[in-house]
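Pilot study result, target chain (714 residues):
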Amino acid sequence: MKRLLLLLAWGLVALGCESERAVMRMHPVPLPPGGAVFTLTTVESGASTKLIAPTNQAIFLSDGRDWEEVQPQLLPSYRMARLDPLRYPQREFTFPRERAFVGVGERVFLALQSSVSNHNRLWVSDDAGRTWSLMRLPEDEGDDLASDPIRLTTSDGVLYAIQARKVWRLEGMGDWTAVSLEGVSFDFDDAQPVPPVIRNFLPRSKTRDFDLVTVLSDQLRIYRREADGEWILISVLPDVDRQIVAIPASRTVLLSTTNSIFRSDDDGEQWIPYWPPNGPEIEVVKVFRTPNGHSVFVGCIDGSIWRTTISATGWEAVREADPDARGISGFAYVGKTLYASTLGQGVIRSTDHGANWADWSDSLRASFPLDADLVDGRFTVATEAGVYHLAGGPKQGRWNKLHDRATGAMAMSGKTLISGTFSGEIMALDGAKSTKTLPMVEESSATFTPQRHGETWLPRTTVADISIDNDTWSVWTRHRGFYVSTDAGENWREVEISDALLRTLRASTITRFISGGLDTIYIAEHSERLGTPTQLWRSQDLGASWTAVHSFPKSKSGDERVIIKRTSREDLSALAAADWEGLMLSKDGGASWSDMSGPWVGAIDFTMNEKRINVLGVSLVGTSTLYVIPDIDEPAKIRDFDLLWPEGATDPPHTLEMLSIGRDVYITTPQGIYYGQTPIGTGRYGEGFVGILAFAVVAFASALGFALLRIYGK
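Predicted structure:
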């Protein structure tokens, strides 16, 4: 009896102590239209043919009317690996992206390498990209080939897998048959700079009775095999190939490199230059049947599209180059409509066989949020598809396009929006639009990668951050230096960083850039060496000289990331910093710091509005939590709300940036944009009447429990 009463007493105490955790529900905000579409292919779905387009956030399907967003799932129940390896630029992804994402009949195949082990993985989907299962690779790969990517190609509805020294043909749904390479030389000696590897394989078709394979070492060797005979070396080229493309119903073959196309009409023995001299860099080549016969379309890395027919002698530019080099990544033909995917502008299409092109991305929402700010009190986001601000409620996702340039950073100068583009131009938008190009150097030793960009790939010329103090505008580019204008953007000069600082930054990345007003600039340097703390540098002469003002303590967690911001427009020396351990304040330009204690384990980001601070952190139980400090002078009054994310969003998320507008909180992540409102009243432990009531419940439960023990517990 005594034990039972004791348990009852403690149960009442626990009941009294239990309080409902305050929750702030996060809602997805539909992204602006457009964005990077890595390639295009088609898949048979029922009785129709559908376009399928992989993006960073999702896979999109279309029957020619609207786009349907699909969140791919890896069977049986957990999420599939992200597709962002397909985002890599041409020089890193040395084959067209269609070699990694291929539709064959009713199936879609995806070949990518694991980001952890660097080993190949092959996925297959039977339901147009909705669910995926891992597929057995052709055979166990040797250690020397494990890191060589698998490429995919098709012929007459048959899938082929290509690796460094092997080619396989898929029989049925899981049986791989090796294609004989007898006669292909893979001999290697010390005189060759690299071992021979297979670059491309063109299987025979119903109308072409020979195979081609290209092998690269110190030169590109081209082999041909007729019927079931051995491979015969037929020609040699000096360039590295990207593709071999066959002209249907003929023996004509095209071979593309980065900057040229060669044509062969004699089964690959002679190759004639087929691309205009000094033409743009080539991303992808496709051949489609049009009313004029078979036409060749070339998508270029600068965003231009070129067209010719087999009988024509010249090329026609049917789409001009994009000013921010958002390249063409793929082509597909469905019915009488030709589609092209872009690395930033979504999908475009042509209804006149490629003569004219128009945007077709209203319902394709794949933009990547690169920066966020307030413009006329509205949440505004910069993406690779342009700059947009919300026109209505966040859940509806209605966006007004301010401009369509790929934008890495933006800032406000009075009522003028200042944008920095991927190509290094500074745009001022206030009714009329004016543009200035930065006088960029070819290379800079100091790499600047803001933390909000995460591991996102951006061109080296991208304007990554902008800071404005009256007429002094400061700009950091991704990898082309630091620039300052003292006349509101009319004229720019490069800021030369001293050799001593450059040597220090050689193994580091600049992750924060803060303008301290007048001639003061701060930068935060994050070392690439594990366990090396973040260093804060200051210049008081607009970058002419730099002083190391503070080395932040080493993190106990090993995460040395530090977020630094100004806390006041008036006090130019007031700074705040957040790291995994907590929040710090400085009133002397970063020379000394005082800790602001709080219940967070790690600070992911924070915002400041007058004396109010919102800190996005990780709670003791590992969930992401918003901590609200209403008054910086009274840090003890902290309200905290666990963030409840929608299904599919990670908790805590890999946050890029947080922006607060009163009670409205916007958080950008690689998966998209999320919105929530801080609840009115109390946090987890309560304030005012609710807090008193909670205390009374605890006290009453405790007193009742122990009273029962005294009376009946003997």
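One observation from the pilot: Residues 1-19, 141-145, 683-702, 704-709 have pLDDT under 50 and may be disordered. A full batch analysis is planned for the follow-on phase.
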